[in-house]
């Protein structure tokens, strides 16, 4: 499987569902000059309605559960959801908290998991490439 | 989302709510504002979106396990939380930290301050609509992250502090790399100063915007750079000194050192933070020059340390100056595996109250930069559950757009 030319740039929307900010600043670091994912057209957009990929961080607190669901519903199909960081993948060090409805795959279907606490920008970019492949498969099926 | 209201005099005001998922906010928080035309007439905010019950989980784990949890209270200023927690436990158990470990802690904390303030400068530039400046400052920030990784093994969550000392020593051959980093930031200070302090557009956006007077800063109990920019001479590193700070020559950075006056506006807060980047680089240089030799940790064997901590009965506090202001940790140990109580107070909790006087009577387009000017950190703050209505509102991306438009207009007017 290889990345063919997607007929558009990949746009991402970032949802913080109670993360500690570690993953969030690494996402921004992946977009800024050192790693520069923007040179491939990957862009952080301001609304889920413009996004192809949802970058979800955090263990999903009770308060953010239905907000995450609404953001997911607002994202047009075909879409890919990435769970970034250990607490989003499994609960991480917050696993036993009373205020958590996560991990993310309990709330919305997740396609790509990026491990790390926080993951390095390289790992996030690798995850985006996997999301890109998945998106192409979804487009091909359409 | 807009809601129309009429008051007793028949004047129409609108209430606008921003967040919790919103492009102008990097973290979930909900701001409710009443507006009349372009003017903000009322401000309120709702928290609890990032509440993870960290303190509660802490009372079910042993102090070594809590250290990992404490680091994950906040990803940006993680070292302050682990240091404050360690200090509280050391305080309760009467553990003495070796001198060399104090110096290494100070160096790690100051590297973090550089990273946090440079990150903030980028966020502020983004809120003003200068995305190229944001990319430039984040490029500057990569240098300190590389050095942090070189010293501790991680870019963000450093895991260098432990109860009774630090985990890794700074070797002789690592010192030149650290000095290179401090030189780099001392040099780039001039460039950053030129971008943020000399540029006429930045100046006219930030001067006299979001004013917090000295009295208001004292009333709202503002801390850190937010308080110092309003003329409150308050810095835990000097007032209640800790780690290696008593042996260093330092004083709180105030905006009047550059401009000769204190106005307490967004511009002053930028000056304070930029001065602190320079100060941190100088502190690291001083630490490297006068660091003593010796042990780096009170007890290397973790089971032995845990056994000792299990017998501890008493209370301890840890106060220190995080990049955003004062962090306070309280721990009560009752001779069991896990502490009986653990309480955290992070700086944004105080600084958020300062939003109300700052945002009052300002324009809607200035909300993003004023909100960002206290360097808010929600994951630090949301420790208490806020009872009340839990309506969820997703709103338009108008705010950021308005801010960018205002910058554009000013740039054109200044041509």
Report on this model:
By secondary structure, chain A is an alpha/beta fold. Chain A has one domain (11-141): Rossmann fold. Chain A is 37% helix and 15% strand. Chain A has five helices and five strands, in the order E-H-E-E-H-E-H-H-E-H. In chain A, strands 2-1-3-4-5 form a five-stranded parallel β-sheet, sandwiched between helices. The longest helix of chain A has 21 residues, at 121-141. The two termini of chain A are 18 Å apart. Chain B has a single domain (58-348), classed as Cytochrome-c3 Hydrogenase, chain B (Orthogonal Bundle). Chain B is built from 18 helices and nine strands. In chain B, the strands form three sheets. Chain B has a four-stranded antiparallel β-sheet. In chain B, helix 6 (175-198) packs antiparallel against helix 12 (266-290). Chain B is globular and about 70 Å long. Residues 383-396 of chain B have low confidence and may be disordered. Chains A and B meet through helix 1 and helix 2 of A and helix 1 and helix 5 of B.
Beta-strand segment tally of chain A: 5
Strand content of chain B: 5-15%
Q: Could you say what the CATH architecture of chain A is?
A: 3-Layer(aba) Sandwich
Number of domains of chain A: 1
For the record, what CATH class of chain B applies?
Mainly Alpha
CATH fold category name of chain B: Cytochrome-c3 Hydrogenase, chain B
* Extended strand count of chain B: 9
Low-confidence stretches of chain A: none
> What is the C-level CATH assignment of chain A?
Alpha Beta
SS-based structural class of chain A? alpha/beta
Q: In which range does the helix fraction of chain B lie?
A: 40-55%
> Multimeric state of these chains?
heterodimer
Continuous helix count of chain B:
18
CATH topology of chain A: Rossmann fold
CATH architecture of chain B: Orthogonal Bundle
Q: Fraction of residues of chain A in helices?
A: 25-40%
């Amino acid at each position: 499987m290889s990345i063919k030319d997607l007929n558009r740039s990949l746009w991402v929307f970032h949802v913080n569902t109670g993360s500690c900010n570690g993953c969030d600043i690494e996402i921004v670091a992946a977009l800024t000059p050192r790693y520069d994912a923007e040179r491939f057209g990957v862009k952080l957009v301001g609304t889920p309605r413009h996004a192809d990929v949802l970058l979800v961080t955090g263990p999903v607190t009770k308060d953010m559960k239905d907000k995450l669901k609404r953001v997911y519903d607002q994202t047009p199909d075909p879409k890919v959801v990435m769970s970034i960081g250990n607490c989003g993948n499994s609960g991480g060090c917050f696993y036993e908290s009373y205020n958590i409805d996560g991990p993310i795959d309990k709330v919305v279907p997740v396609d790509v998991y990026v491990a790390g606490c926080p993951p390095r920008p390289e790992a996030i970019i690798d995850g985006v490439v996997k999301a890109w492949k998945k998106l192409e498969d979804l487009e091909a099926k359409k | 989302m807009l809601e129309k209201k009429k008051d007793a005099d028949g004047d129409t005001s609108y209430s606008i709510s921003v967040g919790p998922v919103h492009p102008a906010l990097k973290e979930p928080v909900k701001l409710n504002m009443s507006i009349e035309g372009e003017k903000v007439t009322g401000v309120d905010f709702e928290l609890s979106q990032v509440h993870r019950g960290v303190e509660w989980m802490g009372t079910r784990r042993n102090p070594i396990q809590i250290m990992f949890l404490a680091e994950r209270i906040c990803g940006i200023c993680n070292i302050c939380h682990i240091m404050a927690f360690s200090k509280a436990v050391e305080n309760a158990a009467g553990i003495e930290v070796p001198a060399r470990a104090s110096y290494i802690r100070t160096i790690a904390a100051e590297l973090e301050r550089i990273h946090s303030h440079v990150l903030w400068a980028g966020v502020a530039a983004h809120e003003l609509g200068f995305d190229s400046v944001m990319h430039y400052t984040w490029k500057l920030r990569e240098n300190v992250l590389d050095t942090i990784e070189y010293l501790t093994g991680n870019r963000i969550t450093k895991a260098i502090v432990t109860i009774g000392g630090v985990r890794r020593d700074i070797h002789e051959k690592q010192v030149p790399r650290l000095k290179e980093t401090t030189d780099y930031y001392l040099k780039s200070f001039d460039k950053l100063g030129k971008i943020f302090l000399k540029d006429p557009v930045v100046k006219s956006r930030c001067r006299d915007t979001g004013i917090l007077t000295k009295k208001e800063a004292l009333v709202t109990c503002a801390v850190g750079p937010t308080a110092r920019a309003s003329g409150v001479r308050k810095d835990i590193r000097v007032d209640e000194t800790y780690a290696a700070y008593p042996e260093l020559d330092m004083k709180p950075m105030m905006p009047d050192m550059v401009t000769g006056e204190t106005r307490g506006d967004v511009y002053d807060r930028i000056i304070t933070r930029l001065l602190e980047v320079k100060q941190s680089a100088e502190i690291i240089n001083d630490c490297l020059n006068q660091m003593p030799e010796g042990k780096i940790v009170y007890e290397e064997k973790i089971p032995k340390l845990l056994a000792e901590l299990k017998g501890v009965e008493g209370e301890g506090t840890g106060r220190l100056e995080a990049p955003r202001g004062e962090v306070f940790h309280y721990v009560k140990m009752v001779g069991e595996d896990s502490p009986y109580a653990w309480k955290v107070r992070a700086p944004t909790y105080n600084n958020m109250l300062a939003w109300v006087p700052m945002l009052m009577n300002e324009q809607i387009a200035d909300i993003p930069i004023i909100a960002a000017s206290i360097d808010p950190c929600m994951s630090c703050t949301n420790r208490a559950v806020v009872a009340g209505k839990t309506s969820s509102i997703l709103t338009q991306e108008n705010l950021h757009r308005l801010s960018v438009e205002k910058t554009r207009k000013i740039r054109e007017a200044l041509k």
